[in-house]
Amino acid sequence: MKNAAALSGHQPAAVPAVGASASALVGASSSVLGGPPTESSTRDRVTQLLLERGATTAAQLGLALGLSPAAIRRHLDAMLADGDVLAREQAVQGSRGRGRPAKVFVLTEAARVRCGTHHYDNMATAALRWIARNGGPDAVETFAAEQVSALESRCRAAMEDAGDDPLARAEALAGALTAEGYAANATTIASGGQLCQHHCPVAHVAAEFPQLCEAETAVISRLVGTHVQRLATIAHGDGVCTTHIPTQPGRAPSGNPVTTVRTDR
Questions:
Q1: In three state form, how does the secondary structure of the chain look?
Q2: pLDDT digits over 165-181, tens only?
Q3: CA–CA separation, 140 vs 253, rounded Å?
Q4: CA 107, chain centre distance (Å)
C-alpha cells in the first residue's frame, strides 16, 4: 500500500485484481496472440498468480491455469533454473501426516523487480536518508505519514458504502487497494479478519525505513475503524504483507492505534 507515486512522481503499474479467473487469463493471452497461449505467456500467467497469491503449490497453480501436473511442473522447473522462483516446504499447522509436505513456490526478488515493483528505489532511499540525516527519525515519520495521506483519502472515498463493521470495511479496503494496483484481498478467520497485500512497490525502501510500513498500518487501522496488528511484510522478507483485524469491535485509539507483531522470528 506504500504510495510509490508520491515517492517517485510516477504511478505504479496496475496489477490485475486478485481472484481473476484462469479462463479470463487464458482468453486474454489467446486473443492477443491469435491462438493458444505460448510458453512465454504461460510463464507470465504463472508469475502473475505468484505475485497475487504469494506462496502457492504446483497443484494450485495448475488448477488455476488449467494445466496438467506435468505441464505446470515443466514451467516451474524452468523458472527455478532461471532464478525466477524459489521452492519451500509448505508450513503445516497441527500434526503432520505421513509423507513429505508439499512444496510451495514464491517469486524471487529479481522476478519481483521485473514485475515493476521496485522502480525508483535508489532515488527514494537516498531522499529518505537525507531526511533522516537532516531532520532525524521524527522527520522520516512525518514524511511517511504524508506519503500515504492521499492514498488514504482515495480509499476512504471508495469505502463510503462499506458500513461500520470492521470486517466489511476490510473487504471494501481490499477492493480499493486492488484498484490502486496492490493486489489485496481480505478473508475471515477464526480470530477475526485478515487483510493481505501481495504487492509492495517500495519494499526495498521500507526495508531500511520501517516508518513507511508503520504509516501504512496506521492508515489501515483508521480505514477499518479498529485496532489492527501487522503480522508480516514483504519489506522484511515475507511473501505477503499481512494485517490481522481482531474480532473485538472498537474504534482505534487516537494515540497509537496499531501493533506490529512479527511472526517470522
A1: CCCHHHHHCCCCCCCCCCCCCHHHHHHHHHHHHCCCCCHHHHHHHHHHHHHHHCCEEHHHHHHHHCCCHHHHHHHHHHHHHHCCEEEEECCCCCCCCCCCCCEEEEECHHHHHHCCCCCCHHHHHHHHHHHHHHHHHHHHHHHHHHHHHHHHHHHHHHCCCCCCCHHHHHHHHHHHHHHCCCCEEEEEECCEEEEEECCCCCHHHHHHCCHHHHHHHHHHHHHHCCCEEEEECHHHCCCCEEEEEECCCCCCCCCCCEEECCCCC
A2: 999 999 999 999 988 88
A3: 22
A4: 12
Question: pLDDT tens across 15-34, in order?
Answer: 343 334 333 333 333 333 33
Residue matched to cell numbers 496472440:
33
pTM for this prediction: 0.56
